[in-house]
What does this fold into?
Amino acid sequence: MAGDTVAAWSPALALVPAGVAAALIRLSSRAPALRETWSLLASGLQAAVVLSMIPGAAAGVVLETILVELAPGVPLVLRADALGCVFAALSSGLWVLTTVYSIGYVRGLHEHAQTRYFFCFALSLFAAVGVAFAGNLLTFFLFYEILTVSTYPLVIHKETPAAVQAGRMYLAYTLTAGVALLGAVAWTQALAGTVEFRPGGILGPLPSGTLWPLLGLLVLGVGVKAALMPLHSWLPVAMIAPTPVSALLHAVAVVKAGVFGVVRIVGYVVGPDLLASAGAWSAVAWLAAGTILAGSLLALAQDNLKRLLAFSTVSQLSYVVLGVALGTPSGAVGGIQHIVNHGVMKITLFFCAGAIYVATGKERVSQLAGIGRRMPVTMGAFAVAALGLAGVPPAAGFLSKWYLIRGALEGGQWPFVLVLLASALLNLAYFVPIIVSAFFRPPDEAGEGIAEAPATLVVPLALTAAASVLLGVAPDLPVAFFSLASRAAGEILGGVVR
Amino acid sequence: MIQEHDSVIVRTVVRALVPFIQLFALYVVFHGHYSPGGGFQGGVILAATYILIALALGRAELDRRVREGVVLLLSAVGVLIFTLAGVLGPLRGAALLDYAVLPVPGVAGPPVRGLGILVIEIGVAFGVAGALTVIFCRLAKAGEGEEEDSA
Amino acid sequence: MLSDHLPPFLAVVPLLGALLAPLLGAVRPRLVHPLAVAAGAATAGLSLLALREVLARGVIRYHLGGWAPPWGIELVLDPLSAFTAVAVSGVGALALLYAGPAAAGREGREAPFFGLALLLLAGLMGMIVAGDLFNLFVFLEVASIAGYALVATGGGRALVAAFRYLILGTVGASLYLLGVGHLYLMTGSLNMADLAQRVPELASPRVLAVAVGFVVIGLGIKMGLFPLHGWLPDAYTHAPPAVAALIAPITTKAAAYALARILFSVLGGAEGLGRAPLLTVLAWAGGVAIVAGGVMAIRQTDLRRLLAYSSVSQMGYIALGIGLANPAALAGAFLHILNHAMMKGCLFFAAGAAAARLGGPALTDLRGMHRRMPWTTACVVVAALSMIGVPPAGGFFSKWYLLVGAVQGGQPVLAGVILAGGLLAVVYMFRVLEHACLVPRDEDEHAGSDPALERREAPPGMLVPLLALGVGILAVGIWNAPIVSGVLGFTAR
Amino acid sequence: MTEILAYAGARYNYWVYIALMLVGFYTMIAHRNLLKKVIGMNVFQTAIILFFLSTSAKLGGTLPIVPSQVTKDGVAAAGLMNPLPHALMLTAIVVMVATLGVALALLVRIFRRYRTFDEDVILDRL
It folds into this structure.
């Protein structure tokens, strides 16, 4: 069960590199090389600090830093437990690659306002790790809002009217959600007398009529970032941001903060017992199942590659929610695993989309005919990640789906098995045509002279593609994600899963 | 500019009355600490005489008798007298505005407070008389100013 | 010696400065601004000292002239008044510093301007330390009269705005005085501590209700509480930048403090007012103010007017916290006095600087601001986030306490209003931010992304107070817990 | 009925101040002329001052000035008027005068700029 809690500085230390880097980047606005160095250094340091905590977390040792008091009785506490480490390791590990990729991308496209770009990027990662390690709801909310605000300039990066419009929509959705979450936090404080995350939840038996409104506020609060239907509309629109932003933030950091929030709230605030007693499990699960199917169906209809990926994200995120909402140990393991697996595979796909855009300027699925011959590495990685996402072994997607299906069967909830299988088929239905046309259709004439994108773009995407296979074959290598996931699932549901 | 009043009666009566009114004003000021009256009332009466002069004998006559700048300075001095008398308390180890500790040779006990109040009243009288006179002067002059640039 | 006389000196120091300003102005006009800054800084320093003393020694009661209350005039410093004094004098001192460059180019006007500004500060500090209701009135009017005159220095439309402010403000003060008169008739006392003992023994709650009603309406006008805010938007919009930066953050706060002081220290808060629904009405009025002010702010195209209506909205938060009258909500209300003073100060400072450098106060004039005035823009962003309630800016935490207070007080609708107010702030503040940070100026369209674009950052005299407030907003946010539990005496259950 | 009348009549000072206050208030609201608004404001303030002063009055009361000799036997307070409202109102009058001064100064400048005191005309020109 929940391991020993040890006071240590490491969780706070994990926040330092990104925070300091943000300041340094802002100050070295006139030196691009310096700026990028800070980013790289910070991402490397952050990853190192987070990784150093993982063996302990996997063994059940929870490191905890209590900083200032946010409010009397509510400290700013950072706690590196198993669940937090999953998200933190994912975000910071992928940040390293994304930084390399970003450098190639912004240079390749001569983007403007690069200082702001790297500044906000560092700030977002600062907030993402803060969200991961937040030890109570108020701390969580604090970093959650910083994440919202710091990603806004990235969404509107292009500063075109469409981008500004997208930014407004993004803010409208996420800040409304923030307000709902804040209300829920205050309500929780009033009901439970604390807002601390505790395995098994902090809300005792509630007065009648409060559970559903409170749950509604909480789900609304985190559901927007988790892109639960019908709160998902901002995500495809936000794809107007530069591709590395879409890749890391809108495939990993931001949306995963949302599903991570769902897991946190289900497991550590509301608690499985309360949910089970009210029959709320199945409500959340059906919401997730609906999102899975609808997201996949909508993805089928997209021509813009990034929008397609966005709808695929909408669909895949709900796997995580579904996994936790199944209420069975295997389901929870699968769901938490899928946070990582989907992150790695989706970022690969976004990297590919960005590499194609940098190399060819193409953004549409219909323009990709024959491109696989010109950019074999990119499209190869794309194929691996796409098939993995659909659940084809040996890539990682298979593993998490396997656990999800097992979890559904354990709970005797066979309709969800059908949903998962149907979604896998839909995944194939929208990914396979892309791969087939990229490799086996002749290129159009205008495609002459197209070559592989620069190495700074190709190397990260090849690495993530490799990682997605590795995670499927050996889920505890190189990072003990599987152990972390099963420990977290055990904490939530009160049982150890093997 | 306010002109001299047409009626010779008004002018003469005002000329004759002003010194008496001013004397009365001083009487009101100096009785303030133990009977009805005081600095404000006395100061207002004093200011009234100057306004009377301006209205009956014309603004030029007022300017001949007192300069506006000097009046303004006197009113500031009045406030300073008040402040200094007040701050003497803390300087001598008592509360602000505590006149019991004022250094008055030959007087002790409650009468010192009375004298302290008198000092204050004198300050107030200077301040009020000066300020009211200046307010009148400025307002009277203001109506004749050139039109403000309308932006 | 100094620490024994802190309560009167808080008001006397700026008052002395106000008297010396015209004298110095006659001799050395250039030294008037340094004098004003010194007086303001001294007041702020004394306030901090007072806060420390109060926290260390407990309540300081000072009897003017050595006359004991209830006959003599009493000045009181307790943690709440010392806290408000720090907030008001701190922001006031920064506004005085800011006013130097902002008032530049008005040669010969320094002495009256800074004299009035210090008089305003003296009045506000007097209101805060006053221990009886009548002196509160006098200081309220000292501050208000200085305020009318200051607004009028804008000339033109500011004259009409100042006139309306004067008429409404005088009505407010008169109503307050009338209420105080009734209280005096019933109890025979004006001293707050004395009244607090006598009010519960009163036989006629109806007369008490009338008296309190007059007091609340009077102070409501002074604090710009919707729907009594009629004077506020015009006064803030048309006042010169230096004046708006001084008046907008602090005058309404002192009135709000006075309201809270009377309702809780004199009338005994929720228990003392008993069945009278006064506090509930106040809370709901605050809620209406939050929404109405926010909605009106959204419609504005002039930055200063937008900020003025946002003040109406933010004052609603304070009224709401006072009306909810539980410890968490009161902590939120008082913290919001500090926070709103800082963020509104910051935004008005920035508005003035932007008007001076970019040509006007309209939202469209702000375009391209982030390139020309990066530091100012950064401060605007911080203040805007605080206004919206994004942690870790200070504004979030006052709203958090208010929210907890509303939930604890069993007022889910008001809790919803607090949250909705944040969303309204999102809309109006992001309109500002979009213009300042996103939309390029017309001339920039041709210049492209030329890095040689002229930097026109505000002069140091303006930038320093701006940055001080920007940092202060974040610092108050991060260290709000010691303030709330240590100074405001709020502790979690 | 007669009791009510007697009750109301005995407090005629209230009626006077209420009437004056309303006159002042009406003038402030109804008149377009800014100068008349100021006059209304003054009436309004004066009403409150009268109210305060009336509360201190006593039939047959005299000035509350106590010769220093009469301290042993105490003073017959019933025969003296309450001095405190007078002191307060003296201060209130000062405040009123100051407000009036500022108001008049404002009016002078408004007139110089707009050449009228008519609020509607001024609002039109804004």
Notes: Residues 278-493 of chain C form one domain.
